[in-house]
Design goal:
By secondary structure, this protein is of the alpha/beta class. The strands form five sheets. Strands 13-12-14-15-23-22-21-18-19 form a nine-stranded mixed sheet, sandwiched between helices. Strands 5-2-6-1-7-10-11 form a seven-stranded parallel sheet, sandwiched between helices. It has a three-stranded mixed sheet with strand order 16-17-20. Helix 12 links the parallel strand 12 and strand 13. The radius of gyration is 25 Å and the shape is globular. It binds glutamine.
Length: about 550
Amino acid sequence: MADTKYIFVTGGVTSSLGKGIIAASLAKLLQARGYKVTIQKLDPYINVDPGTLNPYEHGECYVTDDGAETDLDLGHYERFLNEKTSQANNVTTGRIYQSVIEKERRGEFLGKTVQVIPHITNEIKERIQMLGKSGEYDIVITEIGGTVGDIESLPYIESVRQLMWELGDNNAIVIHLTLVPFLSAAGELKTKPTQHSVKTLMESGIKADILVCRTEHELSDDLREKLALFCNVRREAVIQSIDASTIYDVPNLMLKEGLDTVALKKLNLSDEKFPDLEKWNAFLDRHKNPKHEITIGLVGKYVELQDSYKSILEAFIHAGAKNEVRVNIETIHSEYIDNTTIKNKISHLDGVLVAPGFGERGIEGKINTVKYVREHKIPFLGICLGMQMAVIEFARNVLGLKDANSTEMNETTPHPVIDLMEAQKEITDKGGTMRLGAWKCSLKEGSLAQRVYGQESIMERHRHRYEFNDKYKEQTEAAGLKATGLNPDTGLVEVVELPEHPWFVGVQYHPEYKSTVANPHPLFVAFVKAALKYSQEEKSATLA
Ligand code: GLN
């Protein structure tokens, strides 16, 4: 008998139903009942990881402590559970094939013809069970990306079918997430797409144990009966997932619907201990009842798709709740910021975050933004590329190094204040070759960063190639932009700040990845606090 229990989450009817949020919410409830839970995402695309994907394709690339570039759903898992994920929590078809092909090249298949079944499915099953076999978890929730019936998810669905059989009753269950659309012309919710989706799953040999139905309207008792009968699930296993005003409401909604109890019963696990959601609900309470309101500008070039900056937006929610402040985010496309538009776009804001990014597009707008907030003393947080832009702006406008730039944008700049490290110069592959994952940083005693963190030694996650060029450090510091965070082993600059500005911090790493509901990130908390202060005191003083 298997020790670890498995929950598979599949999706039907359409994509974007929020499988990740359902999986994370269920995990939260199980964790709140005292179970050790982790979540894994299987992605059916052929990229080895999402690191090489444009954010417009699948949204933000989430980075784990161990340096894995992963799907943004892992961010939800960490934010909900306050537990770290790793490379093992995200597997793509590309990675599966890469591993199988490498084994084939090493001769590990002993002359056999290598096929989808059994070689690819075995590899998938192994990846699914890897987390379970670590002995660390009572329950592993595996979310299968895509929609049932997709050609590319077939090997995953087949692997789930085999595992259900191998693990045996009460050791694994399938939750199928579907959409129950409302036809306004008929004034009715329709169950047929769900019936078809369950049928498609059945054709692959999988019977859903629980149906989670996404809907804009309450499901009536009759409709639930109908779904149960035609989809072959128990009446209590038809779970309604109604649109929520915030994703953080979903665990409570699922608790009310009994998703966790049905799952536990089917897995033969105790549901006696009621979930302890006290801290979670205290957060929700603060999030929903703010005492103040501020507006932060998020300057980036992927602003059309909100998912591109998912972790940043969520970090503001956590930090807002902590400060009992409603944080409105105004996304501003850096490409449309120039000398004529800047005042209009920035002057009313209470704080500005210049976002991470790659490539040249929109960087002049970011540099202009930094100049404006530096001169007008508006609270500023620059993340990764945002920090690099702050260094470039300072070099150009304070040090007078005209045309200072990053060699990422201009290889022949006379002043490469941001440059590649030697080790990076030899690398030509794009996938997985950046400085990735958690690195140590030592903060200067008494600096704003050190006061914000309340400690001198921190670990933060990275995802970049270019670095502050040490050759310009002395000059930059002498003119007022201080390097207050350094990698203790390499001396690389991790944090810059302007002591004579009320709140101006640039960080080479990504604090947003580590912000969770239980542990809002200190930098975001302090930034929101500074923006609130600015909105209440300095801003009006400037206007007066
Ligand atoms: N493009 C920059 C670099 O590679 C910054 C990356 C980022 O913002 N994540 O260094």
